[in-house]
Amino acid sequence: MKTSGLEPASLNMQGAIRVTDLVVHSIAIADPPLRSSYGRHQPYALRTIVELRSDAGITGIAETHGGEAIAGAFHSLRPRVIGMDPYRLAGDLLPMLEPPAESTNEGRSQTHFVPGENPLDIGARLYAALEIASLDLVGKAVGIPVCDLLGGRARDEVPFCAYAFYKHAGGGGEADDAREDRYGEALTPPALVRQVERMIAEYGYEEVKLKAGVLDPELEIETIRQLRAALGPAVPLRLDPNCAWSVETSVRLGKALAGELAGGGYLEDPTAGLAGMAEVRRRLLAEGVPAPLASNVAVTGFADIPESIPRDAVQIVLCDPHYWGGIRQVQHLGKICRVFGLGLSMHSNTHLGVSLMAMTHAAAATPHLSYACDTHYPWQAEEDEVVAGGRVPIVKGRVRIPDKPGLGVELDYDRLARGRERYARCAYRRRDDEAEMRKHVDPNWRRILPRW
Ligand code: GKR
Ligand code: MG
């Protein structure tokens, strides 16, 4: 029988590489006391570095959220992953992307969980890390960058935005492991402007995001106005109060800042839930304010899109390969957003260079990405990086796809060991920004939505 000739070749390729180990490194990295509606960052952020070792002598890597829960989940998956073919690994694990049938969230959605601590998306987060590590492994095996493995890059350089935070004094870390406070305290509008100017001078960003929902809304309006005055009209500004505002407050701020948000800016998750977002949108349009609403908590998965679109609740979806189930799911999301006329931007959480490269490849391989991506990267110090050669450069606000296979970065095992030691020494085992507020700011503090 005549065949296409593809079957034997593909059969030969399968089995060419086997995963021999899934190695999980729980690490802690110093993190400054950044503020948001979730509370205050702990002195250490927790991350997990995943290695997929193979019998070809090639190792694929990925980075994701940290702490005990996700490390335990990776350990449970280990027997299933060992022996698998990295070309097929992600495909074989696809059912993990389905949310669990039994909800354990008692009616709470991602809005109510600090990122990385929502039990319902743990499958997507585990899958994402294994997919990214598989792609890195396969890319390294065939000598191709991940974005090209996934159909080819739409861009060689990915733009990122300055991510400004109100913050207390301190650079992160504790006692004799404290980091230099490179940006200083920023709890007033002028201090915030200085922070952004410094970040732009260092990294060359062309867009700015302000993490809001921290100070009284009038002060946050003033911060955005001072930023606009300092940066001029050409720099798109976005602000994200992480649902700290009521519908009323969101509409008031949307109107007050209509001019500042025009020209490529947006308002991100001003209020909680799709119904609230839809109401804010409806009322702002009625007031003649076209500023789009973006979200990384009202629309967090494909299942949210059919409800969001008819309500016009979210006009820009924030993808994130860590949350959306990996880079290919981000590509699928890009296509859906394009078809429905939605914008696509990218969310971030505290991270190191392996995550930054996964985000960069995802953005390069997703033509529809229409905004500069978020990144927390400037908030981390050189000495916490685990990538060989040190921090990934951000030049003119952009990260370039390296001319190297896979993600284009390797681990430095000495740096990684220091991250593990920090994890072993520190007292933190999950992200808890509320506890940190109670410790340092107000013993009775809790996250209230809406606060204003
Ligand atoms: O780092 O505190 C933070 C942010 O608030 C982060 O956790 C959010 O997930 O950056 C994120 C966002 O855009 O909502
Ligand atoms: Mg957000």
CATH class of the largest domain: Alpha Beta
What pattern of helices and strands is seen along the backbone?
A: HEEEEEHHHHEEHEHEHHEHEHEHHEHEHH
How far from one another are the termini?
72 Å
CATH-defined topology of the largest domain: TIM Barrel
Silhouette? globular
Q: Please tell me the overall pLDDT.
A: 93
| Helix and strand composition category | alpha/beta
Q: What's the number of helices?
A: 16
Unreliable spans: 1-12
Report the sheet with the most strands, covering strand number, pairing sense and barrel closure: 7 strands, parallel
Helix content range: 25-40%
Assembly type of the chains comes to single chain
CATH superfamily of the largest domain: Enolase-like C-terminal domain
What's the count of strands?
Answer: 14
Sequence of strands across the biggest β-sheet? 7-8-9-10-11-12-13
- What is the total domain count? 2
Q: Write down the Rg.
A: 22 Å
CATH architecture of the largest domain: Alpha-Beta Barrel
Proportion of beta-strand residues? 5-15%
Any ligands, ions or cofactors bound here, and which?
A: D-glucarate, magnesium ion
